[in-house]
Amino acid sequence: MNKTLTVIRLLFFFLCIAGAYLLWYADGEEKGESLTPYIVVGVLLGALTVLVDVLLKGFSLRGLTAITFGLGMGVLISFLISTSPLLENGDAEVLYLVRLSLFVVCMYLGSVIALRGRDDFNLVIPYMRFVPQKVDSAIVVVDTSALIDGRIIGICQSRFLIAELVVPRFVLDELQNIADSSDPSRQARGRKGLDVLNELRGIPHIHFTIHESEVGRGQQVDAKLIFVAETLKAKLLTTDYNLARLAEFQGVDWLNITALAKALNPEVDIGEALRVTLVKVGRESGQAVGYLGDGSMVVVNDAAHIIGQEAKVEVTSVLPSAGGKMVFARLLL
């Protein structure tokens, strides 16, 4: 529990008790009344208020806005019906009960319908869509794959990305579920994602926010991410190529860390000299294989006798492949 919130609740609780005592001191003492009932009322009032606060813990501003809007519409509709000619004639007590029933039913239906459709509000009031009117930096919504990947830390620390990073609550919940998995590999990935979250909080020039979004529970995570990014007019940061394509189809800008990494891979030119550590035998006789820093495979002819050593080689050809590129080279003496 948030320590600051706990302190505020305790202060409010004791203020209720102090208020009850002051009320007794100002009025009850002169009348000879007992202090106990006043203190009991103060304790009950404080406890009840804190209890309501705890029960409303998961209730967001979006939900409150929806209910307020629904209640207002319910009151308006019930007023229009109750003042119509339909309810002009009849027994006064019966009409009173009918009007009261209409009032309660319309308020209930209005609030429930508005609450169910809270994610579809598209009114002009800015806070109802949670869209900042003045933003100094770009807003980027981060998905689970980008957090588990971990390269976002280096991107942010190098100031390549200076933005307000937004992590929706459902992404945090998904990370927690992965970290709690019984599968060791999934558990490790989930914990890595949570560690990345903590590191992001410590980067000074990055404004990090947990977005308490209440997107429909039945929707898939990808649909929720696109909805949040669209609502905040933000870009979506991911390593999932399919999610990026889906976001693009729906008009949401995206940033793909994997695509960025491929774009930053150094180009290798024919005739260029490289130093590479040879780690295994190639397919053809006499060939040895090594790897560049970006993972590209380097096949060196007539080098099988020096596997396990670092060799200086010259690039003879470069072949594009599904994994990036394959470099063929020869030994340099």
From TrEMBL:
Gene3D superfamilies: 5'-nuclease. GO terms for molecular function: hydrolase activity; nuclease activity; transferase activity. Keywords: Hydrolase, Magnesium, Membrane, Nuclease, Transferase, Transmembrane, Transmembrane helix. Its cofactor is Mg(2+). Pfam families: PIN (PF01850), TRAM (PF01938). The keyword Secreted does not apply. PROSITE patterns: TRAM (PS50926). The keyword Hydrolase applies. SMART domains: PINc. The chain crosses the membrane at residues 7-26, 38-56, 63-82, 94-115. Residues 267-328 form the TRAM domain. This is PIN/TRAM domain-containing protein.
